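S., here's the first fold you wanted:
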Amino acid sequence: MVRFSLRQLAFLSEIARCDGIAPAARNLNVSAAAISSALDKLEAVTGLTLFDRFPARGMRLTRAGAEFLADAEALLTRAKALDRRAADMAKGETGTIRIGTHYAIAQRIVLPAVLTFRERNPCVRIEVEEDDFPSLVAALDAGDVDALVVFNQGFDDARFDVERLKELPPLVLLPAMHPLANADSVQLEDLSDIPYISVSRAGPGPSYLDLLRAAGLDPEVPLTSQSREMVQAYVGKGLGYTLVGFPPGRNLTIEGDAVVTRPLSQEIGHFEVAIAVAKAVQQTDLVTAFLDMCRNQV
């Protein structure tokens, strides 16, 4: 337990600077008795003699007093910085935002929001965590992230407030040279003989492959990956097709192969993009402002 106050340390610093209690009292606009009492208490709780007193010549720091003062002034500097930071945080000018999301949403919604937000709030630190749905929900529940911008795969309404932003019907991702790439839309039966490249299951909700199977299509699945980029790269090499919510940037895979997206002619279901926050947590103005920018991207 700390036995002295920042006020006592501030008095100590001013006494040392002025070489006496009376001039320190004038500078600080407090009574000399208050400063003298504070110094006596500081020496008592620390067990140190901080000043040598000379009735005719004022006061002079002892060696122990000089060492203690150096640490005290470092602490006062930190306390002032903390006070300024708290004021900036209260005004929404600084702080940290922690957002959980998925790879595809990070590219299309969160990244543009980060860039716009940083232009307006350059002193705010933004941490973006990309992970699978169960891990992100656990992070939100534990307070490790402030909010999620994710594909909604099922939230506990008792613990989370969920705002549905957009419904995303699946798009068929094909190599640019595939015969179906020129079609306005793709029929399910057109895909029946084409291998499906699957993203590994990463949550409790249905996957795109589940939606296909529920619609009566049961494609061969020769390749599976946890990486959406890898799945898209397989498609770009002509190894099959996949379903996506968003097309790759510039319609190119990480290997530089051209791909295209085409809508399905039949309705087989959709995924929801949603914002989720914990009911038990009061959101800061910074988090609210950032989520507003995510809404604007949608």
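And the second, which I think is the more interesting of the pair:
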Amino acid sequence: MTATDPVLEIRDLSVAFHSPAGAVQALRRVDLTARRGEIVGLVGESGSGKSTLALAATRLLPANAEIRSGTVAVCGQDVLSLPAAGLRQLRGQTVAMVFQDPMTSLNPVLSIGSQMIDIQYRDATLSRTGKRARVLAALERVGIPDAAQRLACHPHEFSGGMRQRIAIAMALLMNPALLIADEPTTALDVTLQAQIVHLLRRLRREIDGAILFVSHDLGLVAELCDRVVILYAGEVVEEGTVLDVFHTPRHPYTRMLLDCDPARIDVVSRTLPTIPGDLPDLVQPPSGCVFHPRCPRAEDRCRVEAPSWNAVSATRRARCHFAGEGA
């Protein structure tokens, strides 16, 4: 595998969830690529399918999920066809995940040291002493003070920011090629968010892999990521470099999403801007462009004809009939 080969490559992925109301089409024909040394941001409103995409990449979807089409490859391995033993080998060693809430991903009845030593069970080359030394190095790497003294502590004895740092250290213990961070700063205050972003930026230089950073916080994505993928109602509507997409958005949804970012508001107001309307019913997605019910410039064509990808440049594209005109 060369430095330019994709670490994560998702093609034409469609995922549905079976429910009493019908099949919820959570993802439809999604493409996403993350290369070695790259941080890719995945952005969208709540309910857009971000976490579903992250879980599909590791085949951790719930029992009522159905993968209807597409492929997911991590370091060239077809994740969707791997047997159970192959998945166990993949998770942790090749791909690792940091979840939104570290209190639900860390075992509350075991000490941090026990958990971090136990997850190295696959490595038969190290003694328990060697594994403990690796744990200490990982905790120091993410900035946990007095790491040796805190190995006996349980998760509730750490702050939210410290728990998330521990979760990141655990994810990186086996030096995975792909780190998926699913909204790792959601439960943290602004100061701790900045610390986690700084940590991930530093780790990007230290690990020889790719990071998929899932977030609804545009400021964090702009500060951390190289490229950004905009997801709306289960479809990718725009992707490109962070600089291009955030400075000159070519899809109306991207533009309206950026307009709602509090950091971009110059006038003092008691109300925050919102995108009019609601996410569509994904049991029966709209015909034509999925965004047309909320789009201020939708035309008759948008209501009946689904837009194909419009290549704005070699590294930039948008799924909009008018992307070439600046949307």
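Why I say that: The first helix runs from residue 50 to 57. Residues 250-327 form one domain.

Talk tomorrow,
H.
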